[in-house]
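Researcher: Next entry in the queue.
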Amino acid sequence: MTLQLRYVAGVSPAKWLRAWNERRPDLPLEAHRVDESAQLAGLRDGATDLAFVRLPIEADGLHVIPLWEEQPVVVIAKDHAYADEASLTLADLADEPLAPVQDDAAMTVELVAAGTGIALVPHGIARLHARKDVVAIPVTDAEPTRIALVWTLERDDENIQEFVGVVRGRRAQSSRGQAEDEPALSPAKAAKKAAAERRAAEAAKAGKGGKGGKGGKGAKSGGKGGKAARPAPRTGAGAKQRSRRRGR
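Model: Structure for this entry, 248 residues:
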């Protein structure tokens, strides 16, 4: 038995696939990229178990978990008048012809490079199909798109929920409900979070290693603030003789 996962261009599921293979080596997961026009293909007839799709979709009969938003960009030829701009608006592009949209995003970008027009696409797609003869520029007021994880209501079993937990960042020992309210992270943000957690763990470990040594609390050479303790006053005959010699 295997789980079948489909994902649209612009999604990079490698991190989740590695986590799944480590957690469930008994249940292989096969992942295949599909065109956006076919992103729901196979879900309703059971050929596909889960899919990363680009919203909006027809959601009847599906569980839909919205994940991250995608920054919209315009892909234009490198010799275009706007090619050196840091960002653009929809008003800037109002008079620009659009390249014919193809099912395969790579072909749309190919048409942009050929000079047929511009293309508004999510940043992930522009990055996936980057070329030397085109540039991708953020469009600040364009509506962002959103990626979601979907599966059918009938297919809602423990294996599906375990993969949902991997995507949400739940640990293997966590229950299904513990992270229902946690925000989902994109692969890049998830990697940054994991790196930050590793650094915090290493810092905590280093801090524990520095306690209890010669410089720890209660060391002979220092009390509060590291100040040396004053010697206790001496008493007895020897102390009285020293006081008489000093004129006390």
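Model: The two ends are 98 Å apart (CA to CA).
Researcher: Noted, moving on.
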